[in-house]
Amino acid sequence: MPKPSTGTGATAGTRVLVVDDEPQIVRALVINLRARGYEVDAAADGAEALRLAAARHPDVVVLDLGLPDMDGVEVIRGLRGWTRVPVLVLSARHSSDEKVEALDAGADDYVTKPFGMDELLARLRAAVRRAEPTGTGEEPVTVTAQTFTVDLAAKKVNRDGRDVRLTPTEWHLLEVLVRNSGRLVSQKQLLQEVWGPSYGTETNYLRVYMAQLRRKLEADPAHPRHFVTEPGMGYRFDA
């Protein structure tokens, strides 16, 4: 069972599709989401989830992987055939391989059961924010963190008023993470985007270069605030 939430705040009118075959979890999610102004639909299996997604056009999907009629990864692939709606996976599966499979299929984030409701709601709000249009049709050019600023157009990083020198590989890794701010990016995706499509298992590359980025940009590299590791899964940039 999820732990109760004490947080507040949501976008009124945002529609959430909850897909889970555990009635107590669905009930807890529906109560918490509706209390914060969300509109909620619920499905207990994959077929109903795909039908509701097509009929109701949710703004975000909260999806359990262990469904009675099909695997949740199949649902993600079915959705990705026609929509980029954010998918937040909620699952009791702890295997890194299964988590990575869901991310590579197109999931945007992954929360493991049992979960805290506050964490889930924060991840959900972040997923919705990332999916919202900016109003200009363009991505933000500058991303500001606590102690540094990333200028994506100029390909520059400034920390405490001074430019930070990054290698081309460090910049490319930083750029991929910043453009997916708040989203868990799988190890395979990072390797293929930064090093090329023939890469996918060389996770030691990521460890080395993430350590370099943290050393150059984090206030406390040993306890990173902005470049977060999700063990066995990937990395997340949190501004």
Automatic annotation (TrEMBL):
InterPro entries found in the cross-reference section: CheY-like_superfamily, OmpR/PhoB-type_DNA-bd, Sig_transdc_resp-reg_receiver, WalR-like, WH-like_DNA-bd_sf
Database matches in SUPFAM superfamilies: CheY-like
Domain Response regulatory as annotated: residue spans: 15-128
Feature: DNA-binding region: 139-239
CDD domains cross-referenced by the UniProt entry: REC_OmpR_KdpE-like, trans_reg_C
Keyword Membrane among record annotations: no
Residue ranges of every copy of the OmpR/PhoB-type domain listed in the record: 139-239
Keyword vocabulary terms for this entry: DNA-binding, Phosphoprotein
Gene3D superfamilies: 3.40.50.2300, 6.10.250.690, Winged helix-like DNA-binding domain superfamily/Winged helix DNA-binding domain
One Pfam short name: Trans_reg_C
4-aspartylphosphate PTM sites in chain numbering: 64
Protein name: Response regulator
Protein species of origin: Streptomyces physcomitrii
